[in-house]
Automatic annotation (TrEMBL):
Superkingdom of the organism of origin: Bacteria
Gene: dgoA_1
Organism taxonomic ancestry: Bacteria, Pseudomonadati, Pseudomonadota, Betaproteobacteria, Burkholderiales
Alphabetic keyword roster: Carbohydrate metabolism, Lyase
Pathway the protein acts in: Carbohydrate acid metabolism
Name of the protein in question: 2-dehydro-3-deoxy-6-phosphogalactonate aldolase
Pfam families per record: Aldolase (PF01081)
KW Lyase (keyword) present: yes
The protein's assembly and partners: Homotrimer.
InterPro entries membership: Aldlse_KDPG_KHG (IPR000887), Aldolase_TIM (IPR013785)
Recorded GO MF terms: 2-dehydro-3-deoxy-6-phosphogalactonate aldolase activity
EC number in record: 4.1.2.21
Length: 227
């Protein structure tokens, strides 16, 4: 007898990332952040309850920001890079102390290099074909991007066929008030961009936004009938 389709792909998730997601499944995307401000913003996020922080590589001196966050924050906080487009960038993130590689696409070479370096992999996927190919190459979570285009019904359809233990993480257009339907459909985390941080925000403003997202997550879980 063959295995059911949604259990056939071997899955060995990155334990530290999954543990962080269990505490708080919200990924802070700090696109455009500078190294001189990133530590204060990182502390504000952690104080609000966040456990995963991403510095996109199209930010100013992103590797310096990743290194600064890694040096300043507790070891259980997952610090990584977003908009990772090449294998060379994976190596640079690893040298900076990052533990997470987030991609807008699902290049198998980048995913495999990420896993070979012992980092967590979150590739961007927009079709089931991309999703299963990413899992075959070692992805830890599936970044459903862009969430505005995919929508809740796609999350629900994917959840029926993607292995249950694989987190589906919508990214794009997520706000404190619209997480409930995604959670009810089977999403297990969210990537948060400009509604959480945009260039020019102070650490205090980011902290207030972060607390609003934590409250929104709690309300969404109630709405979705989750703990």
């Amino acid at each position: 007898m063959t295995a059911p389709a949604n259990t056939a792909i071997p899955y060995h998730p990155h334990g530290a990332l999954i543990a962080a997601m269990h505490v708080c499944p919200l990924v802070a995307i700090l696109r455009g952040v500078r190294p001189d401000e990133v530590v204060a913003i990182g502390h504000a996020l952690v104080e609000a309850g966040f456990r995963i922080i991403e510095v996109p590589l199209n930010s100013p001196d992103p590797f310096d920001s990743i290194r600064a966050l890694r040096d300043a924050l507790p070891p259980e906080i997952q610090v990584g890079a977003g908009t990772v487009l090449s294998v060379e960038h994976v190596y640079e993130v690893a040298r900076a102390g990052g533990s997470l590689i987030v991609m807008p696409h699902s290049d198998p070479a980048v995913i495999r290099a990420t896993k070979a370096k012992g980092l967590a992999s979150a590739p961007g996927v927009a079709t089931p074909t991309e999703a299963f190919a990413a899992l075959s190459n070692g992805a830890d979570v599936l970044k459903m991007f862009p969430a505005e285009q995919l929508g809740v019904e796609v999350v629900k359809a994917w959840r029926a066929v993607v292995p249950k233990q694989v987190p589906l993480v919508p990214v794009g257009g997520i706000t404190p008030s619209n997480m409930g339907p995604f959670l009810k459909a089977g999403a297990q985390g969210f990537g948060l961009g400009s509604a959480l941080y945009k260039v020019g925000n102070t650490a205090e403003e980011v902290g207030a936004n972060a607390r609003a997202f934590i409250a929104g997550l709690q309300a969404a879980r109630t709405e979705a009938g989750l703990k």
